[in-house]
Write a structure and sequence with these properties.
The structure holds two protein chains of two kinds.
Chain A lengths: L1 E3 L9 E10 L2 E11 L3 E5 L6 H8 L7 E6 L2 E2 L4 H6 L1 E4 L11 H11 L4 H15 L14 H13 L5 E5 L7 H16 L4 E5 L3 H7 L2 E6 L2 E7 H8 L2 E7 L3 H11 L3 E5 L2 E5 L6 H10 L3 E7 L3 H11 L1
Parallel strand pairs in A: 1-11, 4-9, 4-10, 7-8, 8-9
Antiparallel strand pairs in A: 2-3, 2-5, 5-6, 10-11, 12-14, 12-15, 13-14
Helix pairs in contact in A: 3-4, 3-5, 4-5, 9-10
Chain B lengths: L23 H10 L3 H9 L2 H14 L1 H7 L3 H4 L4 H22 L5 H5 L3 H5 L5 H17 L3 H15 L3 H4 L1 H28 L3 H13 L1 H12 L9 H12 L12 H22 L8
Classes of the chains: A alpha/beta, B mainly alpha.
Chain lengths: 314, 288
């Protein structure tokens, strides 16, 4: 298992303590162990890896066969009700009350979470406007399009202002603009600072855009737990460069800049590792001095994919 | 997170009392129900009998009124166990009709689009969910069964005076026991059918069937095998017999089911309904 969860000083949001879930004779989650601390935690894994089962277990839908988990330090076996007061949940599958208007539906869910009647109504309006359904809030949820149903599911998950939100495949079935909007909302909620998110997805890009920590599951086991923010920080040093007119002079200057840590991957393509104290602007400066065009410059962007693929090989 | 601000903000205000949250469900259900004219008409109709029986009790004790009508209401319709049994039977028949209308959609609407996980991911248990759904029928049916029944009982006691109420306390007890037994049984069965049969008409038909079909079957078993055991599967018969036992309108040997047997039948059906509910009311079904 890859364990690079980084910052140990932050208190754990979710602690998995040899958590095991059996459905009949089949073991779905196999003694999971770990501590999740991120502001937005990505749950990754192929279909059937146990992502949704883990979320359902943390929500108290399934009772652990052995072991336990703690959210905010509270045991899911003994303090499920207390935990649920502070969490919101957006299910993967369609989940709504078709006969109700959106505002009625979100208000009901708010009241069941403990909001007083007036506050629930106010928050329902606010949540629907926030997710972009303000104009459609008096329409019955059953008449909504797929994208709108995803948004109303998000609205009911945030209406009561939870401290932790579980989002299970939130971009499922969304067209590109709707997906972009959904990811923006997730990032905005994350950046509000008072709410943490667990985002389950099989789309690496969604997780990469929103999460700062990832937990990768495979066959009911944790195969990787990484602090993505730290990974990103490390990867800032890896640069891919495509040039035009690169000369021996240019290569010598690059060699001096990075202290030999570079490789030529094509006639005009280079991969290099920037040393401490050196910035990308130094590259531009050298290119300008040597009259070389920089046609493309990328930080290494495939870190999550690499982590994922490495994890899947285990 | 104000509407005009478009920013996410956690909620920091006070929370409602945890014990009272199950009452949110009936409140929302009534908001929907009382928008239906048909339902409002039926609900209004359920107060006709209480009005008529109130007038009868009044006439029973009003000498001037009796003189005007030139009839002896007191001997024509005596206010006793039978009087209250008739009233309660009428009201419970309406309660059954209302349950057939409301009951089948109580849970099926939540199950139709996987709404149940949204209830159960909150600080809201399965028991509270069942209690909430039960309260939809319980509060509604109470409003025109035992509540007016007890009011009539108190009205009669007030007008009769002279310790009538102490002598006939069992009538008050019978009103409460019969009504609550039927309300609980009806609610449980309605919820169980609603959970298992998503099609409204099928759930209504099942509710009718469970109270009607066992009667001819019980009679057939009685005729063929010369035994009353066939009636042990008849909840309608059990309620009817229980009502007569509690209102003391039986002769000494004319009952079909004894007091204990009637209770057992009702309890058995309630337990079966509870089992059906516990099988179906889960956030997600687990396929082992």
């Amino acid at each position: 298992m890859i364990d690079q969860s980084g910052d140990q000083s932050r208190s754990a949001l979710i602690e998995l303590d040899r958590l095991r879930i059996d459905f009949g004779k089949r073991t779905i989650l196999k003694e999971l162990e770990g501590r999740l601390r991120g502001r937005c935690i990505g749950l990754l894994g192929p279909n059937g890896a146990g992502k949704t089962t883990l979320i359902h277990t943390l929500l108290g839908f399934y009772r652990p066969h052995s072991g336990t988990a703690r959210i905010f330090g509270l045991d899911i076996r003994t303090a499920a009700r207390e935990i649920r007061t502070s969490i919101g949940y957006m299910p993967e599958r369609d989940a709504y009350l078709a006969e109700m208007t959106a505002v009625h539906f979100v208000r009901l869910m708010g009241e069941l979470s403990g909001l007083p009647r007036e506050a629930a109504l106010e928050r329902a309006h606010e949540a629907l406007f926030y997710v972009g359904l303000g104009e459609a809030r008096y329409r019955k949820v059953g008449t909504y399009s797929l994208g709108m149903k995803q948004l109303v599911k998000l609205a009911q998950a945030i209406a009561h202002g939870p401290r932790l939100i579980f989002l299970d495949e939130p971009t499922n079935g969304l067209d590109p603009p709707a997906r972009k909007r959904m990811l923006e909302l997730i990032r905005e909620i994350r950046d509000s600072g008072r709410t943490q998110i667990v985002l389950s997805s099989h789309l690496l890009r969604d997780v990469e855009e929103c999460c700062d920590e990832i937990l990768i599951l495979k066959d009911g086991r944790i195969v990787a737990n990484c602090d993505l923010a730290a990974e990103r920080q490390a990867n800032r040093k890896f640069v891919e460069l495509e040039t035009r007119g690169a000369s021996a002079d240019f290569l010598t200057a690059i060699d001096d800049l990075v202290g030999g840590e570079y490789a030529q991957t094509g006639p005009q393509r280079f991969k290099l590792i920037m040393p401490e104290g050196r910035e990308v602007r130094d590259l531009y400066q050298i290119a300008a001095e040597k009259s070389v065009q920089i046609r493309r410059l990328n930080y290494k962007r495939d870190s999550l994919e690499e982590i994922f693929l490495k994890a899947m090989e285990q | 997170m104000a509407v005009y601000e478009h920013h996410y903000k956690p909620y920091t205000g006070p929370l409602s009392k945890a014990w009272s949250r199950f009452l949110v469900i009936p409140r929302y259900a009534y908001e929907d129900l009382f928008q239906l004219r048909f339902f409002i008409a039926l609900y209004a109709l359920s107060f006709v009998a209480p009005l008529i029986f109130t007038i009868l009790i009044y006439l029973h004790h009003n000498v001037t009124a009796l003189a005007v009508f030139q009839m002896d209401v007191a001997s024509l319709i005596p206010v006793n166990g039978t009087f209250f049994e008739i009233f309660i039977s009428l009201q419970l028949a309406l309660a059954f009709l209302m349950t057939v209308i409301i009951g089948p959609v109580l849970i099926s609407r939540d199950l139709a689009n996987n709404g149940l996980p949204l209830y159960l991911c909150r600080p809201f248990t399965r028991t509270e969910y069942i209690l909430g759904k039960m309260a939809v029928l319980g509060l509604l049916l109470s409003s025109f069964t035992w509540v007016p029944g007890l009011l009539l009982f108190l009205f009669q006691g007030y007008l009769a005076g002279g310790g009538w109420m102490i002598d006939n306390w069992w009538i008050g007890g019978a009103i409460l026991a019969v009504c609550w037994t039927q309300i609980i049984l009806l609610s449980m069965l309605a919820m169980a059918f609603s959970a298992w049969l998503k099609w409204r008409t099928a759930a209504s038909a099942a509710l009718f069937a469970i109270f009607i079909i066992p009667t001819p079957i019980g009679l057939a078993i009685e005729e063929i095998f010369r035994t009353r055991l066939g009636h042990l599967f008849n909840p309608g018969m059990a309620i009817a017999q229980l009502t007569r036992h509690l209102f003391r309108t039986f002769g000494s040997t004319e009952y079909i089911l004894s007091f204990g047997e009637s209770w057992l039948v009702c309890l058995g059906y309630a337990l079966v309904a509870l089992w059906m509910l516990s099988r179906k009311l889960r956030a997600y079904e687990v396929i082992s």
